[in-house]
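TICKET #2291
ISSUE: user wants both folds in one file
ATTACHMENT 1:
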Amino acid sequence: MSRTRIAAAATAVASAMILNSPAFAQSGEVNVYTYRETKLVQPLIDAFTKDTGIKVNIVSASSGLEQRIKAEGANSPADVLLTVDVGRIAEAVDAGVTQPIKSDALDKIVPAQYRDPDGHWAGISMRARVIYASKDRVKQDAITYEELADPKWKGKICIRSGQHIYNNALFAAYVAHHGEAKAEEWLRGVKANLAQKPSGGDRETARDVAAGKCDIGIGNTYYWALMMNHDADKKPWAEATKVILPTFAGGGTHVNLSGVLLAKNAPNRANGVKLIEWLAGEKAQQMYADANYEYPVRAGVAIHPTIAGYGKLNADTLPISKIAANRKTASTLVDKVGFDN
């Protein structure tokens, strides 16, 4: 077989594979790449399709989606990227795989502090980084993030890795509030108060508080609700702890986002924008609150009773974009103070 015929055959096979791919762009469809588990987004996707008639194709992964979109280049089928945490959002923008969303409806619904100034992303739900405190050993019901470095907590704090994206965002917020030097001093103080080497996840933090290894831990709001309402084997960990909504001194509680981005070469751009706007609508926002235990970004949407039970959220007014801008500094400081050692 000649080289020409081999090349032609290879091209034909490749074209057939692309055209028959379930993720290939088709009229009346939209292709979503997501860092969220499919089971978490599927109810939203099903409701969107029912309301609009637009079919949604999903590609789910735990990492590397922005690199995948970049590698696919102009032929990428990706229309929308759903992600969690300001870190993931910033990585996608930095990779150059997004474009401005340009939606008046979205701009009216999502507060400016939860949108990219250049329009490349918007938050569609929020979570807060809070304290899981022992009901038996911690009597106070209010705490500041600054207080975590107070020696009174020496040997009493549990936390996952300081380099994890959730903690990186919190530490970056501290840098944005107080500057690099003060943040370094604070991180050294928090490290000195740790009961053990940073490890595990937020659920394990609650477990260790319940077991008496520490008095307070740092975790996201929704994990506690999931343990209490859905994980029978972990419910005792939630029952042994209480959630305290900490604040920055003179400020509010640190929040992070589930975000949405429009892919740079979205072949179904119009449908992608429709999906993004739908996710900010009342139905989707209520689903985020009820199913995922997150805070809606849309005003007037009811918060799940378990989350409401933590108390009124006084969200920090620091723009999420400023947190993103300080991520690298925060990561460098974690290594500098040997936080995870």
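ATTACHMENT 2:
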Amino acid sequence: MQFIDLKTQYELHKVEINQAIQTVLDHGQFIMGPEVAELERTLSDYVGVKHCLTVSSGTHSLEIALRALGVGPGDEVITVPFSWISSAEIILLVGATPVFVDIDPQNYTMDPHQLAAAITKKTKAIIPVSLFGQMPDLESIQAIADMHGGIPVIEDAAQSFGATRNGKRSCGSSLIGSTSFFPAKPFGCYGDGGALFTDDDRLAATMKAIRTHGGEVRHHHTHVGTNGRFDTLQAAIMLAKWPHFESEVESRKVIGARYSQLLKDICEVPSILAGNTHVYAQYTIRVDANRRPDIQNSMKEAGIPTGVYYPKCLHEQPVFADLGYKWGDFPNSELASREVMSLPMHPYLDTEAIEKIRESLLSSIR
């Protein structure tokens, strides 16, 4: 059984994907070819914002966003300790200091009630993370940011592209939206990639310059930039996959609901925040922390892969030791990191596979 089934997706759309790749091979515009601009137009229309800027990875997109906002040494950026390391490492990469705020234990996203206490005069940005496939309470987060002088909010939407909150799409509900096109994401390419979204013309121009060595015009560099361009081949692959994306999102919703109905009496199933839709980048349950390794091993023996996102919080990582945080500072994140477990999730899971997963989980927990 596949944890994330990219092979089936490729086989289903093989003709379109292969033709898209061949088209790029034929025209030879491998860097910033026409497919890149076409994909950016397609995605900006979908999200409902003026600008989409494709970049080399979801990590790079966050770094470019912070650089465009002028974040640097002496500044603080608030994010959560329960996320992939990209959410915080990019803060160090621009010379700023990460400040962590605990998560809501029900939806694993930033707890707005704890945000205000973390804001100081040094706070230059807030990065809430849309985890596992759904968005946080961005309205409350934005309201708090506005009360403190309009602190920029960057949605780290690496796992939630295609999700909505109160009718607004992920990546289009804050000053800057950032996502990842890593192959395992709900909308992924066949390598590394990501994108930035904004309605702000000035920010879009600045991010575009930073993406390409700090200049919008060749040989004229106005910013300290980087090589953050998205490959034409990857853009072509994503354009070939694009017509099928919405149906895959709908399949994920149906499969997620089916999972929850079958598992709700066995374990703690995902909680969807009111107003949200969920794309289930991961279908994540909670089990007894002491038994999680045994449950995973038992399911592995039955041929069912599982995953843990994430076994350690960011404040536990050695690279962040100098921040001075200790165990107990973020109890919701810490408990989640020991209890969460993700089950196979992709648009091609059928009823038989889900039933098999349920029976294996039930047997393993007993």
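RESOLUTION: both attachments delivered.
EXTRA DETAIL ON ATTACHMENT 2: The first strand starts at residue 51 and ends at 55.
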